[in-house]
Structure formats: C-alpha cells, structure tokens
Design brief:
about 750 residues; 6-stranded antiparallel β-sheet; 30 helices; alpha+beta
Length: about 750
C-alpha cells in the first residue's frame, strides 16, 4: 500500500480494506486519504471504491473522507471522477441541503466523465422527485440539457429521468425524440434501451409515442428478438383501432421466429387489445387461433387459450367465434389439463350459443379418442347441454348411455350420475347438481382440510362448511359495501354520542356534517391531538381528541384555548377533567358561524392547557402534590369551503337538474391553476371541494368536473368545472348554480 509500484498499491488497498474493520480504520486512515488524491488513477479509484464498501460497516466514513473525494471529482480519469462523486454523494445523502449544493456545484459546468454525469443525473432526479414544486425546476433544466450531450449513455440516462419525472405529454416530447433516434441506431443496445423505455411509457402516456410508430414498426424485423418483442407489444398497446388489421399482418411472420417466452408476452398484449377494442374481436381471435395451431409448449398454449376464454367471457358477440376456435384446437390438443379446461368452458358457454348442437360433435369426439381424464370432462360438458337445452335432451341421453360402457371408472360413474339426474325431470335437482354446481373456494378448502387433519383426523370432513366461490365473492362485495356505508355514516354516528356531554348541543338541530379528523401534533410527540370539525346549520363544534403518551404524568382540567377569528362568536366549551396515560379524552369548543358566508373562512390558533401531576407509571395513580399548570402549542385549525358543503359526483339526472337550474343564480369565473398536469389539477380541485374523484370525466387535454350537493343550511348547489391546458398551463372555468346568489359567489371566492 505504501510501496513504489502502483500496480501493487492498488491491489494492496483493495485487499487491506476487505479485511479491515472499525477498530483498525484509524491506523490506515491517513494512508487512505493520501491514496484518494493520488495521481495514479488505479490507486485513487481503488481507494474510493474501498471507501464505499467500508461505509457499509462504518457509516460515517464517507463523511470523514468527503473532502478528499471532492478534490478528485474533476479528475481527467473518467472512473476516478465517477467513484469520487459516488463517495461525496454517499456522504451527503441524508442531508438534502448538502445534496442540493453538491448537484448545483458540479452541474455548472458539467463534469467530463460520462459515468459521473449519469450519477449526477440520478441525484438530480431524486431531488426533483422529492420536491415537485417549482424550486426543483433547476434540476429538470440540468437533466434536459444532458439530452444534448455527446455521450449516448448520458443522453439515455437523462431521457429515462425525464420520462419518469415529467407528467404531461408536452414535456416528454424532447425525451421521446431522443428515444426515437435510439430506435433507429445501428447498435443493438441502444435499440433495446429505446424500445424498452418507450414500452414502459405506454402505460402512462400512450399518445406521447405516436410519433415513434414508424420506427417501432421497423423494429419488428430486428434480428434481436428482445427488441422486436418490445416493439410489437408497444405497438399493440398504443395502436389505433384502424391500424389493428395492418399490425396483425406485420407480426404474423415475426411470431414464428421467436421462442415461447416472447410469444407469451405478445399474446398478453393482444389480450389487452381485445378488451380495448371489442369490435375487432374477429381479427384478434383469428390471429390467436392461428397461434394455437403453431408448435409450442403447454404454457404458451395455455396463455392463448386464456386469452380466447377471456374474450368469450367479456364480449358476448365473440362467443360464437371463440368457441369455434376452441373446438378446432381440442381436435389436436396434446395437453390433457388444457383440453379438460376447454371442455369445461364449452360446457358452460356452449348451451348459451345460438346453435349449441354444433359443439356437441366436437365434445363427443373426445369421448371416443382421448384419454380417461379428457373423456370424463367431455361427459360432464355434454350433460350440461342436456340440462340447459331441452330440445337436445333426447340426443344427450343417447350419448350418455353409450358412455356407460366406457372402460374408465370415472367416465362410467359420471355418465350414470348425469343420466339419473336428467331422467328424474326434477328442475331443482338439475340446477343443484349440473347447472349451478357450488364450487368451493380452493384456498379456504385447503386451509380447512389442513386444520381438520391437525385437530379431528378421525371425524368425517364436512364440505358444506367451506364457502363457495360465489359466496366468498358476495361476502367480499358485502364487506366492501358495508365499509363504504360505515365510511359515509360512521363519522356522524360515532361522534353523536360523544357530543352529548355538551349540555346545549340539542338546540343546534341535526348535525350537517362531521369532517375527517386532522392531526394537530406529530405522531411521536408526548401529547397527540387531533381535531374533528362538526358542522351544524349555524354552529361549529370543534372536538379535540387528546392522548397522553407519558406514563408518569396525570393531566387534569384539560382544555383548548382558541384564538379569535373575526365574525365567530364563542358560545361555550366542555373540558376534560382528567386524562390518564394512553386513554383518549375529548375537549369540545362551541362557536357560532358568522352571518356572512365569506367571513366563515379562517384559521383558529390553538393551545392545549392543562394541570400536570406526577404519577406512578405502574399503577397510574397521581401523587399527593397539587401539580402545576402547563401549556402545549398545537397546529392551527382551518375552516374552509369544503367543510361547509356536502358534495357528490354527478348522477344520471345531473344534466336535467342543471338545465332546470338555468333560471336560478349563476356565478362563473376562470382560474389559473398551479399544476402542470391537467389530471393532477382535476384531482386537486376535487380534494379542495371534498368531492369524489369519480366526478372527473374527459380526455387527456380537457377535463370536466360535475357534481352537486348542499350547503350547511340545506341550500342546494350544482357545480360544473371545465379544465383545459392550451399552452402548458392549466386553466379552469368554474360555474356554480344555486338558489342563493350569496352561496354561489361564496364558493367561487373560496376556490379563488
């Protein structure tokens, strides 16, 4: 390490640091600092990399050696510069301000090492992601300037960062152009990078890559199959309905040249396309059927069959076409499990077709030609035709009679079983054992069997104790509906009992709305306080829920001192007489709203005041001392516009209600919003007005928000907001209609 031969020094540093621990680092620290600033690139790089490895066990090491690392960041050697920046970044990763200074310092002028620049881009992207405000725009400007760098790896790193950070298609144009150039590169690595990144972009901004369609189509014939597969899946995800026919023709020859794992990816993309464009089911189903006829493994064939089955279930118009393709496939199907599944689908969907008899021949052929499990599945499928279609019952009975002579026990048993049920002419029996057979939930069945073997292995297992798939689904839907119901009514119902401690609360009438609790302290503080705003027609009740997290303190006479807001009249309060450890207590403050609605907007300063007495942590009993008075500052409580309205998304009758309200008072104004993305702006407006996101409708360039509801004095209001982003900035035209001109104007003023 201290020798004269640089070749040995670099290797000695790496070897020494691999066996060094925190107790030995002091002995070599001086030599390591000298090695970091050594003129030999191999020695300096070895010392820097060893520093990063040692920091895993000695966290503050990079901070102690950061000054030496920063000295060599501008080294002429690209790897030394890269490793030095990594050490400096590791030293400052927990200090955002220091990281900002580091990125700002080395981004003007930028570093010469492309590796270091890539790392600097990642640091900048992380800082920009953590702070989405305009303050991070300088980092985005640096990243976008790297799109014009001469190094391809720097350009790609910058494009990758822009695509993950920018939210509007307009801001992505430059990065997409760079990736488009990569798609036409002579280097396979660049083509793969461009195609892969564009494929990821389709999930968020499919319209942004419309300009790359020609380049992606050229990649379908790329000799690198990974590149070609990415190009195909991207085109399938972003293609228009009119281009599907041409696209299917282009990828026909491509499909036969790629292995099964790539084919599965393409089939998954086609399955999503079936859902997106249901009117193209003929073309897509024919293409999938052609793939079924090709050679392939069971996983590949199963993926195609799943896609066709999903098409049949989701699109009733595709049922006949899909069933026909499945019937052709089982004629030559080599995979028993797949044939059994397709026969099950034919038995379930075939009787619903216009001409169900056409499928019986394909199914019965399996009884004659296939192995035992497939023949048994065919018997079940044929029997379901007889159960569902009375006109086919005589023929089905004949087929089942023939199946009774089969060599396989399972086939004979099923034929006898289904024949007996069909001959009984009992609709309830047919429905219970053939048409609507309860299928147990397999996960719960497995758990129940395991528990039964552990606890009662000698007793018979009751299959009826296991819920069916339908019952599980209904239970989940019921639980979800119950949760939604509880979320909508639980706040009012939950706090109604607690507010009875206020002696005069009955005079206020029925509670209009209880808002969601807001935290007034941090979760790890000694006193946790949150506030619930209860809105009445003319009064406001502030409920402060307080928890004492100190087990050696006993609080008495706890109340909240409110700051004054002009227009509000303080009526009274209900204090908490005692507050023991970890048991919530409530304090209520009652106020009367101002007469003018606009004066109701404001914030109350809050201070928690109480008497503290020491107590025994084990028993919770306070000492005999009188205690002492203390205060604890809290966050302000803001009264906003959304607190005084109950709004919901537009229903089917909204349009008629809007037209009927044309004669009432209307207030309209246009606002400029701070958000750059129109989707984020629409969500922000809904959150500001406490409206559900389902009120948002529209496309990528224009959004509409429609809804309505009541003001706290039961004054109806209707809202329509139109958002557009004509030149990169989002503007909103908000229109409010209400019988009260004052309320309509109040909502506009509150939004502004």
């Amino acid at each position: 390490m201290t020798g004269k031969k640089d070749l040995y020094r670099a290797a000695a540093i790496r070897a020494l640091c691999s066996i060094t621990d925190s107790s030995m680092i002091q002995a070599i620290e001086r030599y390591m600092k000298q090695a970091i600033v050594d003129k030999n690139a191999a020695v300096s790089s070895s010392a820097l990399v060893s520093t990063i490895h040692l920091s895993a066990s000695i966290p503050d090491l990079t901070r102690r050696w950061a000054n030496e690392a920063q000295e060599v960041i501008h080294s002429d050697n690209v790897m030394v510069s890269y490793h030095a920046l990594a050490v400096a970044g590791s030293a400052k990763r927990t200090d955002r301000l220091s990281m900002v200074k580091l990125v700002t310092k080395f981004s003007r002028p930028p570093l010469r090492s492309p590796y270091a620049l890539c790392l600097l881009i990642r640091y900048s992207a992380k800082l920009a992601e953590e702070d989405p405000s305009n303050a991070s725009e300088c980092f985005m400007e640096f990243i976008e300037s790297c799109l014009r760098h001469k190094s391809e790896m720097v350009v790609y790193e910058a494009a990758h960062a822009v695509i993950h950070l920018r939210k509007s298609a307009r801001d992505l144009a430059q990065a997409v152009s760079v990736l488009q150039i990569f798609c036409g590169s002579s280097k396979a690595t660049l083509r793969l990078a461009g195609a892969r990144t564009l494929a990821k972009l389709t999930a968020r901004h499919p319209n942004a890559i419309s300009a790359c369609t020609v380049d992606l189509e050229n990649l379908i014939s790329d000799p690198n199959r990974s590149v070609a597969t990415l190009a195909v899946t991207t085109l399938l995800a972003t293609g228009a309905e009119t281009s599907i026919d041409r696209l299917m023709k282009q990828i026909t020859s491509f499909i036969s040249e790629i292995p099964d794992e790539f084919k599965i990816v393409v089939v998954s993309a086609i399955r999503r396309l079936c859902t997106k464009y249901p009117r193209k089911h003929q073309v897509l189903a024919s293409f999938l059927a052609g793939m079924l006829r090709d050679e392939g493994g069971v996983q590949y064939k199963t993926t195609i069959a799943d896609a066709i089955i999903a098409l049949i279930e989701e699109n009733p118009e595709a049922r006949e076409t899909g069933l026909a393709h499945l019937c052709e496939f089982i004629e030559d199907c080599e995979h028993t499990s797949l044939a059994v599944r397709i026969l099950h689908v034919l038995g379930r969907e075939g009787p619903k077709a216009r001409q169900p008899s056409r499928y019986i021949r394909y199914i019965y052929n399996r009884v004659i030609l296939e192995a035992g499990p497939v023949r048994a599945a065919a018997v079940s499928a044929v029997a379901r035709f007889g159960a569902a279609r009375a006109e086919l019952l005589p023929n089905i009975r004949v087929l089942l009679t023939r199946c009774k002579l089969d060599d396989d026990d399972e086939v004979r048993d099923r034929a006898i079983f289904y024949s007996a049920i069909l001959d009984s002419d009992d609709p309830q029996l047919v429905d219970e054992y053939m048409t609507n057979v309860p299928i147990p939930n397999l996960e719960i069945l497995e758990q129940s069997l395991q528990n039964h073997i552990r606890t009662n292995p000698d007793e018979p297992f009751d299959i009826n104790s296991v819920p069916t798939v339908d019952e599980t689904k209904k239970a989940a839907e019921a639980a979800e509906a119950e949760a939604i119901t509880q979320n909508t009514i639980s706040l009012e119902e939950q706090y109604k009992e607690q507010m009875k401690v206020i002696p005069f609360v009955e005079r206020f009438g029925r509670i209009f709305k209880s808002c969601k609790p807001i935290d007034l302290t941090e979760s790890e503080t000694e006193y946790r306080v949150r506030c619930v705003k209860h809105i009445f027609a003319h009064h406001l009740v502030l409920q402060f829920e307080i928890i004492n997290t100190l087990n050696d303190q006993f609080l008495e006479k706890v109340y909240v001192c409110l700051g004054t807001v002009p227009g509000y009249e303080f009526i009274g309060e209900a204090i908490c007489e005692k507050l023991v450890y970890d048991i919530p207590g409530n304090v209520f403050c009652v106020l009367e709203f101002p007469k003018v609605p606009l004066d109701t907007l404001g914030s109350f300063g809050t201070i928690l005041e109480f008497v503290v007495r020491d107590c025994n942590p084990k028993t919770g009993l306070p000492d005999a001392s009188d205690g002492y008075a203390d205060t604890y500052p809290l966050e302000e409580v803001e009264i906003g516009c959304a607190d005084q309205f109950k709004l919901q998304a537009a229903t089917d009758e909204w349009e008629a209600s809007w037209e009927e309200a044309a004669s009432v008072h209307e207030a309209c104004d246009t606002f400029g919003l701070s958000q750059a993305d129109i989707g984020d702006a629409a969500i922000a407006v809904c959150e500001h007005l406490d409206m559900p996101k389902s009120a948002i409708s529209g496309g990528d360039t224009v959004k509409e928000i429609r809804g309505g509801g009541l003001w706290r004095e039961n004054v109806p209001v209707l809202i329509k907001a139109r958002l557009a982003a004509p030149q990169g900035s989002v503007t909103m035209q908000l229109t409010v209609r209400s019988p009260s001109e004052e309320i309509a104007t109040f909502m506009l003023a509150a939004v502004g």
